[in-house]
Amino acid sequence: MDSYIIESNKKKSRLPARLDFAQSGTGLILGLFMWVHMMLIGSIILGKGSFNFVAKTMELAFLSETGHGFPIAVFFAVLTIFTLFITHALLGVRKFPISWKQHRIMRDQMQMMNHTDTNLWYVQVITGFIMFFAGSVHLYIMMTNPGSIGPYMSADRIVSGNMWPLYLVLLICVELHGTIGLYRLCMKWGWFAGKDAKKSRQALKKFKNRATIFFMTVGILALLVFIVIGINHRDKVGERYGSYVAVEQVEQVEQVQTDTAIAVPAEPQVPVVEGTLESEQAHEPEIVQEVEVTHE
Ligand code: HEM
């Protein structure tokens, strides 16, 4: 009884609220990052050249004279995102039902309440759990191979490296988790509340659904384009897009050269018209200079 009284007099700790705030903060950054990330990956839909341009820009190639990028820049970007990812996951597991009993109670309440936002929270838990593993694999590969991003190397990783199943699962999880997460943040912190809370909630829900469909479509289209490129590139795994273009350009130049060589004869045969300057020059005997050789 005494210890309980001592307990209840203790000032309420602010730590849970701070952890909640940190979880929202890391979630907000990761959620917005994923929208940008998917648009950058989606550039493959516009063609290999545009994806190559995006990959080189992410490597800060515009800072180098040769146009070669700095994979170290990607390494630090991945390291930052990986740290945020692990921190967010760590803060997230606090809310996971950790025993079967807790899980059972939660499922029963969900069925009883049938409240969409509560159901969305359950989707967060499941997709978050899957991303512990699938997201870490992707981030570790990106962190240890920062210079291997390009139309061919990415496609090779997806097809010849068998990454496509992981990306498909990760894509579905991250698009659901990310957009639901951003929607829940707006609900939790009252962002975009407007005068009519009910109306703005409906508007935000509509936006969430459309954003999920949009980014899922971009992601699946990009994955399909990568798979087609990867299948066609299976016999040249490891070849960099840049080197391919260079070879192609050299071949094109050589082709142009051969074409022009065939079309244009070596020396234009100007017919010599008698009595003109040319004819006189043509008839001038060649002057052979005799050289005296002295043997030393
Ligand atoms: C800075 C950190 C990141 C970098 C540099 C990065 C880079 C890439 C690259 C280059 C691809 C194209 C495929 C490849 O080359 O293998 C890709 C695909 C993908 N990434 Fe990331 N990524 C990062 C973080 C994340 C995170 C945190 C997630 C989710 C947890 C994620 C989810 C995905 C998904 C789902 C795909 C497949 C895209 C599709 O289906 O079209 N990425 N990422």
In CATH's first tier, which class applies? Mainly Alpha
Name every ligand kind in the structure.
protoporphyrin IX containing FE
- Total domain units: 1
Q: What is the CATH-assigned architecture?
A: Up-down Bundle
Strand content: under 5%
Rg of Cα set: 33 Å
Order of helices and strands: HHHHHHHHHHH
| Uncertain parts | none
**According to CATH, what is the topology?**
3 helical TM bundles of succinate and fumarate reductases
Note the overall shape.
elongated
Number of strands: 0
First-last Cα distance: 126 Å
Task: Tell me the number of helical segments per DSSP (H or I, 4 or more residues long).
Answer: 11
Mean pLDDT: 85
Major sheet size, sense and barrel closure: none
Structural class: mainly alpha
CATH superfamily: Fumarate reductase/succinate dehydrogenase, transmembrane subunit
The proportion of residues forming helix, as a percent range, comes to over 70%
